[in-house]
Design a protein that fits this description.
heterodimer; A: mainly beta; Jelly Rolls; 2 domains; 6-stranded antiparallel beta barrel; 5-stranded antiparallel sheet; B: 2 domains; 2 strands; elongated
């Protein structure tokens, strides 16, 4: 899961144990999340005891209204029972014997861009119906975060008709073009175009903020008659934050 | 001021006539395309609206009715129906299938 970040945050929570971290006070020389301007969102943290014998790296949601950081997923801990690769996978919370120091941190997971792509090759192009918004393909954004989504769509007409409109975009609703400019992804134009040729149009990059994993669709639309039109394309998402 | 007049050659006049005929044909076909005679669900929707005396132009944006295809084997379906413009949406009693109406709010 993508995490937000806040600078120089190190605080003492109100209690020890396995409870969520309710901010009590800043450690000398550091700031509380509120002082660092942290908004509500998902963050990664490291909590550690004074002698470093107990520690936990995890991710959770900080809520500015309650100044509480949840311990939703334990990635690593001093017992080796986190969910990250190399750990045992149980994700056990450390039962801190005293209030730990808790800092907002960036982890390796924050620095890895999730990339997913899909392709309908020219050889696999498929026919679409005139005037019908059709899913060319979709990709799964696996988790919450900010994504750039882009690609292209090819339209291949046959049958000697006239094609007078082509559009593509991407979005979160199946089989529906978002209202242009659709976050920058719309590419469309009206033409009076004699068919029996191919056109490939790029789909503008779109910045999507997802609060959970979700399917992202690539859409195509064209208007033509008579004859046929097939589509193909490439579709790509990249998590950027 | 004296005006010069030009007389077209027969070949030039033929070329202009061909150009105008081609444009007229293209415009007619482009307009025809707006009604989507090759799309079964568009035809069904148009027939349904004809009975209400409503004539609409189809398109991808800012139109009262939109049609989509999720490529899930269930075919075309109505993705948007603007009741304020078109009145109540069709039902299966009007000859539409449940799949074609699956995104119509009940």
């Amino acid at each position: 899961m993508a995490g937000k970040f806040a600078n120089s945050v190190l605080f003492l929570p109100a209690s020890a144990g396995t409870a969520d971290f309710v901010v009590s006070s800043a450690v000398q020389g550091y700031m509380t999340p509120a002082l660092a301007g942290a908004a509500t969102g998902v963050y990664r943290y490291r909590a550690e005891s004074a002698d470093l014998s107990e520690w936990e790296i995890g991710e959770g949601t900080y809520t500015s209204g309650t100044t509480t950081l949840t311990r939703t997923t334990v990635l690593y801990n001093s017992a080796g029972t986190g969910t990250a690769a190399g750990q045992s996978g149980a994700g056990t919370k450390i039962n801190f014997t005293a209030q730990p120091q808790v800092g907002i941190v960036a982890t390796a997971q924050d620095m890895t861009n999730t990339i997913a792509f899909s392709q309908v090759a020219y050889a696999s192009k498929f026919g679409i119906t005139t005037g019908t918004v059709t899913n060319v393909q979709s990709v799964n954004a696996p988790e919450a975060g900010n994504y750039l989504v882009f690609g292209n769509v090819g339209f291949e007409t046959a049958g000697g008709g006239v094609q007078n409109e082509i559009h593509c975009d991407n979005g979160l609703t199946s089989a529906v073009l978002d209202t242009a400019p659709a976050g920058g992804s719309t590419h469309g134009y009206h033409v009076t175009y004699l068919a029996n040729q191919g056109q490939v149009i790029t789909q503008g990059a779109r910045y999507l903020t997802l609060t959970a994993g979700q399917t992202v669709y690539q859409h195509a639309y064209t208007s033509f008659t008579p004859g046929t039109c097939s589509v193909y394309g490439y579709f790509f998402i990249m998590k950027v934050a | 001021m004296a005006r010069k007049t030009f007389r077209l050659t027969a070949a030039e006049q033929t070329a202009i006539d061909d150009y105008e005929r081609m444009h007229a044909a293209l415009n007619k076909r482009a307009e025809f395309s707006k009604k989507h005679p090759d799309s079964p669900l568009h035809i069904l929707v148009d027939d349904f609206l004809d009975k209400r005396g409503i004539d609409i132009e189809h398109g991808p944006f800012n139109v009262p009715v939109s049609i989509g295809d999720e490529r899930d084997g269930r075919g075309q379906f109505i993705t948007k129906w603007d009741e304020a413009v078109l009145g109540a949406p069709p039902t299966t009693a009007d000859g539409f299938t449940a799949d074609q109406l699956r995104r119509i709010k009940k």
